[in-house]
Design a protein that fits this description.
Rossmann fold; single chain; alpha+beta; disordered N terminus
Amino acid sequence: MTGVGESVTDPYLWLEEVTSESALDWARAHNKVVMDRFASSDRFTGLESRILAMLDTDTRIAYPGRRGQWLYNFWRDGDHAKGLWRRTTFTEYAKDEPAWEVLIDLDALAETEGENWVWGGAAVLRPEQSRALISLSRGGADAKVVREFDITTQTFIAPEDGGFHLPEAKSEIRWIDIDTVYVGTDFGDGSLTDSGYPRIAKRWKRGTPLTDAQTVFEGEAGDVAVSAGYDRTPGYERHFIGRATDFFNEEVYLLEEDGALRHIEVPTDASESWYKDCLLVRLKTPWEVAGKTYPAGGLLAIDFNEFLAGSRDFEVLFTPDEHTALHGYGWTENHLILITLQDVQTKLHVLTQGPDGWAREDLADAPPMATTSVMNLDPLEGGDEFMLSTSGFTSPTTLLSSSVGGPTEVLKREPEFFDAAGVETEQFFARSDDGTMVPYFVIRHRDTKGAPAPAIMSGYGGFEVSRTPAYSGASGMGWLERGGTWVMTNIRGGGEYGPQWHTAAQKANRHKVYEDFSSIARDLVARGITTHEQLGAVGGSNGGLLMGVMLTRYPELFGAIVCQVPLLDMKRYHLLLAGASWIAEYGDPDKPEEWEYLSKYSPYQNTSATADYPPILLTTSTRDDRVHPGHARKMAALLESQGHPIWYHENIEGGHGGAADNKQSAFQATLIYEFFTQMLIEDRKRP
């Protein structure tokens, strides 16, 4: 094991050269080993075909994004691997087989242009909805090309014809009006932050070169990103600037007509938003202002103009408690909808402002052991209508339409994709090392309760990301139907109990994430749900870091691990791609006092040739320009050199999600379940 602070040359730095032939040849050789071992059987092919059929079927819900009278949707299926961007009306969408107006056929576009285009999103100009800014990436990367699209003629507008166009970069572009946008992109040397995102925001007029765009704000190189936007609410039009100084702190300014900036003076780690006359502030840490202290996780409201004039007399719309946290909120035309989590289960509320303050009522019943989310709020053109999407681990998604004070009707239901008869969901709590009770869900067939069964536990634990119950046909087909148990953990670092659940595990307290996850692993065994030899673990991105720590610090707890698109070299993570933007989460390895705690868990620096590690499958994507593929490559090479049982697979495309289309997604999912089946069910003895 490399000693802390010891200066050595990394023998695998050459694997950080993303597209070098030597690195790609190394990846291809490892891919072949994986394919031969796991992807050559009829069982693999059969499951892959089932998952692909699920992803491609027309019986899935086509989730819409509402823009006034139109519902937009991006759709992939067996005939359209890259996808269709399309739209329809609400009346048409409510039909069993709605008619869609196809706006862009991405398969046809990619073939015509000879590019491996992956959909990156569309920004539709409102209220006209005659134009859109289309983002496309090559192979699924975060960096995207932006092109203007005429929705009326269904054609792209070439730059020589006055169309807005940005070359490949991690750009920000937003409409002001049909002839003007705010843009942040790679303008040349010094225009990007150290994290690779825009440092400068400009106002760009149609028909003028990008080089002539007017600068409205410049941040610092050490910031994460700078952006500019426009609120087009009639009668409340506002221009604004955002300067993200790190991943969790942002300064927000109103941009006045004369170019002056007016700072919205709330804590930089708070989330502020506004609608008409109301300013909302969601706090991440306690805030003492005007003689009052408001709690972390609380939601505050105040008249925006009064706030700008100096008032700090907030009304508290939500106060968290030991079991309940604010999960989300959004406006209809006349009401504010709140989504809360009570021990990681959804509750819905509607708030209405009146002359005597805010009134609060329950909005709708949310089923237990499920997640219900509110969609398609459109206060500008949608009145008080909205949609609800609800699903659980064994309950396929149901999409409903409703309005505040009106009836709720079922719009769409997804079919069942696996046999869930007899499969039950339970919630347990494990006591972590410091005494904190940490929740987790167990999904298993009732017939397996009499004896320990093979189990897979998944985890993330970072960036205030909450993990809530959701239907997964892939895990049902690939694991539950094989008699396995699925476990979803709600460890600290996430947001299941509000921002405090996250901040409790930042930087020097990161060890609590790993203590929570390992405590759940022990609790599963203590309850007789599984054994350590039968227990697998899976996680991606920040969850991939979690898997790396489980391998190197808690190897005795697991029979197999899958580590996806991971961070693993915490000595160099901030130097690779977007890594610098995550210093606020993990710490700065260039500062000795912060490397001191990072070095204690950084998986790449804490491997041991003499340790008894469970078999591990590491996966990544060549085109991932968020988490560098060098993390997984180097870890695989190091573990392999030490004689540990490792398998490595690299998707040459796919971006940070690891897959660029349904076929790749089906392969990735099948590979995970086949790996766990072989390691945990068929061969419990470590190779």
